[in-house]
Each structure stands twice: as structure tokens, then as C-alpha cells.
Amino acid sequence: MLSYAHRDEKLRDELAKHLAALQRSDVIDIWYDRKIVPGDELDRDILQRLQNSDVVLLLISPDFMNSDYCYRREMRIALRRHAKGQACVIPIILRPVDWHRTPIGKLSALPKDGRPVTTWRRRDEALLDVAKGVRRAAEELRQHRSQGVAMPEATKRRRKEISTGTQAA
């Protein structure tokens, strides 16, 4: 699932193109609110997707941070599921914004080093980096689930390191 501010729709569309290869190879299924059928309940459908998605991509920008719906509702639900090991939440930094001291600041972000997509000289390279990172996360999650493991031990260890402020040697 993609969680984003509507002002970032063009960047979301660019990202979706880069994620298309993952969707075509059945690694992920791309869903966002514009796919809701007219007449369906917006909040209910979004909540249902948030509660059932294995991977949630938060498309971070000043508009995302400014949106009560994105920040307080979607992000909170996604992070709660992430903390329980029910989903993998990946922040995708689209545009420069002060995100490090927010609840997502403890997560590893994409693209590389959390550098905003719009600051890369070649935007396609940034989005390719994102797609590769999402592929790694989705395939690792799929592998562990096929082995009957709810959450990889490495992920558990990383979460412990984050919460205690330590790092593995």
C-alpha cells in the first residue's frame, strides 16, 4: 500500500512506474486511494488496506507531514502494525522535510541514506534505488513467511537496537 499526500500524486505515479516490474513479477501489489471504486467508502477501504498490507510505503514530504489524515491516521496505524511485526513500513523520502525526529525517524528510509528523491540529479536513479529496496524487503518478508516465521530475527534484532539505542557490531 502507498500512503501519500495528494499533492505528491505526480511523484507517486513516477514511483508506481518503477514498482511496476515488482508488481508484474508478483512481488508486490500496488494499491493507493485513487484505486477506490466510486461509491465505496473511502475511510473503510483505506483502513482495510492498511490492516491487510504486508508492506506499507509512506511517501514522505512536507505535505505528508502536514496532513492530519496521513500523519495521524495512516502512519499511526501502519507503525502500530510494524511494531507488532504484522507489516513492514518503509518511509520513502520524496521531498526534503524534517522527518528524523518523528515516529518514522527510527526506520531505515529509502532512497539510500534517506536522501529525498527530488534532490537526486537523476530522479530515475533515486526511484530505481527505492524499487530495489522495496524488492529486497518484500522478498525477505515472503521468504520468512514461507518458512512459517512471522518476522525475521534480523528485523527483531534491528527493532531492539532501535529501541535501546544500540547497534550491532
Q: How would you describe what is shown here?
A:
- The protein is mainly alpha-helical.
- The protein has one domain: Toll/interleukin-1 receptor homology (TIR) domain (Rossmann fold, 3-Layer(aba) Sandwich).
- The chain has a three-stranded parallel sheet with strand order 1-2-3, sandwiched between helices.
- 30% of the residues are buried.
- The C terminus is likely disordered.
What is the secondary structure topology, with strand pairs?
Blueprint (H helix, E strand, L loop, with lengths): L1 E2 L5 H16 L17 H11 L2 E6 L1 H5 L1 H16 L4 E6 L29 H24 L6 H12 L5
Parallel strand pairs: 1-2, 2-3
Helix pairs in contact: 1-5, 2-4
CATH superfamily: Toll/interleukin-1 receptor homology (TIR) domain
Based on CA atoms alone, the radius of gyration comes out at: 15 Å
Adjacency order of strands in the biggest sheet: 1-2-3
Question: How much helix is in the residues?
Answer: 40-55%
CATH fold group? Rossmann fold
Low-pLDDT ranges: 157-169
Strand/helix succession: EHHEHHEHH
How many DSSP helices? 6
- Could you report the average pLDDT, rounded to the nearest whole number? 86
